[in-house]
Write a structure and sequence with these properties.
299 residues; alpha+beta; T-fold; 8-stranded antiparallel beta sheet; 7 helices
Length: 299
Amino acid sequence: MVDAIHRMLFDAMGSRCEIRLAAPDGDSAQQLMHRAVDEVRRIEHKYSRYRADSIVSRINAAAGSKAVSVDSETADLFGYAAALHGASGGLFDITSGVLRKAWDFRQPRVPAAEVLEPLLALVGWHHVECGVFDVYLRRAGMEIDFGGFGKEYAADRAATLLAEAGVRHGYVNLGGDMRFIGPRMDGRPWAIGIQDPRDPEGVLATINVSEGALATSGDYERFFELDGQRYCHILDPRDGMPVRYWRSVSVLAPVAVAAGSCSTITMLKQRDGLDFLNASDMAYLAVNDEGQMLYRDLI
């Protein structure tokens, strides 16, 4: 008989993470949660740009010289990246991670045009050749980075593994990217607080969620302020500059990769983001640069 919610905290993908689930006993819960954590770490090791032996690092190292063989999982992720590039009008571009070399958000300094220009020349999904089971970056120095949806993908995979193992109540939370397996044991939804983008200790709203996924993108995660202007870590691939219009965007979707991608694309689209959100038919809570809160079907 399942009679308690069990919890595990762990660190992965540069974030504090949490799993909560209902299980018959502590031993069963530990086994299930460790399996889920192992899946998250498998994905982190396979796709981290910080590991020289990851497939991402091997593809980047071969840029401009040769194609690299990939398995079906990786090929599917490249297919998803292509879909996001198209849906965003080219703004969601997994080759834009190279722009981070121009920015250090620990220092209040805007890079000069001569620093950004050579990096911008390496950005462009059209320079990526995807075969059935190989990938080639045409220009030397190019890089791809799955960081734009990697945590969300891992949350989906871990939650799917738990659901297939019989878990019916709980969630996977990877640094705020959440996939829900089912409601609390008594049927009540989980009450999830959305951070106030201008108050680290404040809660903007509380969202009740029983299933699906919830993800938030914002300008408060990594940023600096200079001359009254906030510069955040989400960069426009067209000019290499931080986006400005939205303070935060939270999206509720059936799966975490959809929620996270939708919130990020909205940030990238800036003033046009609201039209994109409304066209997506997903529930959302967004705060613009004037502090105005806009929402649909969440609260």
